[in-house]
Request: fold
Amino acid sequence: MRTRLQPRRTSCVALFLVAATCALAGASDAQPKAEASGLVRVRVLRVETSRLVTILGGEATEADTVFAVPIERFLALANRPDSGVQLEESEFRLRGQRLRLDGVGSGGGYVLVDLANTSMQWMHPKERAYVEWRKPNDPARRPTPLSQLEPLGRELTIHGFRTRGYRMQASGGTAWLWIASEPAALAPVMKRIADLQLAVKSEPETLDQWAIGRAMQEGVPIRVQALSPKEYVIRELVSFTPKTWDAAEFQVPAGWKAIPVERAGAASPAGSCQNCE
Reply:
């Protein structure tokens, strides 16, 4: 797989997240007890809209009908040849205001995100180098208006989390957002991730990115279902396992070279950095 030293300007969550996203870190070794620390597991399920009729056996493919289909029905088809269903699973480490996402590209690369300082570092161990992005100082930038959420009037327990459902209607389609208030320590982290996503890219590229960002403004998004003319996407927070991490794992190692974003270029298939000199 070809790796790139240049960071991709896409949604973090991914980062959660997806999105997509992302690693956070705190500048101090001291960690308040109120802050979350642990391992977060997430997954993203994508279904080609054109295959929904086949998968559902000719059933209607309106949003409410599709959203009511148990996710297990799609998981059973995940990654089968020609099924039109793809499953992506990932995990990231969280320590207070810092995240670490391992396994990025080849060569043992990883990503650190510092929410407190609104910065991200793409780490390249083979070159002992990293590319850093920081939020630009743009006081004139107007905040992106938040989409309105309509309560579904329903509660649902998903992966052990008690959630409330909301509908988000947008020009690109319809989304259901299942949002929890627990774990309470995760809620402010999600809000900061959403703010960082908007700093990186003020206009999300897809409906599911827009929906997950909106959900993180309200609490802890456990499941987001988004149906657009192109695809049906389900994003889930599968589990949060409390765990203590060494602060050093979330910090740039001493002696590593910082590569300006402007100089970051393509890396070779082996993962070596062409612009690290």
The longest strand covers residues 37-48. Residues 14 and 187 are 16 Å apart (CA to CA).
